[in-house]
User: Fold this.
Amino acid sequence: MMNNWQKHSHNYRKHSETTKFVTMLDFFRKRTPKFDYLQRSFGQKKFSLLDVGAGNHSASKTKKLFPHCEYYGIDLNRHFNNDESDFTAMKAFYEMDLTRLQFEIIPDDHFDFIRMTHIIEHLFNGDEVIKNLLPKLKKEGFIYIEYPGDKSTNLPSMNGTLNFYDDPTHVRIYSVKELTALLTNHNCSILSSGTRRNWVFLTAMPFRIIGNMLK
Assistant:
């Protein structure tokens, strides 16, 4: 009896520690910029999200942190690091080439939040893409755009794309001034802009650079 009890107790503690670890990871994930704005804007309230660039299991990751999110995804290829669990998490998925500006299938005045994280640098007409997606936002909705700016061209080159030119699919550098003008000309108010600083990422950066040099 004693051995069985000790084994059961050990398993319970292990499960408890794992749960705490996952909770801690979720806490830090919500502090990454693309999730931080969702957390601050909606918390655990219901909201509709149009995720422009929905690969890399983005739907599952987002729904795990925000279970009341109504998730819609756009991507050029539906199989870009997605599986059935991701599509199950989505309300709808739009497989399309953004540069063609054919967004009629996406409902207007429907979304509380549009997220474009590291998308426009891959598009020669990213400004036109943004302009044509803005009607999809509800009044008082939010749009979050993240991209490597001109300063990134001065960063060291490394695997994982630190310098703008590390990725051969990057085709255009956009500026804060340029996008600020575009958004304000289309009745948007700028809540914040400028260089993003993720302190968790910055703290780990020296180790990433050293690791890259050792490869």
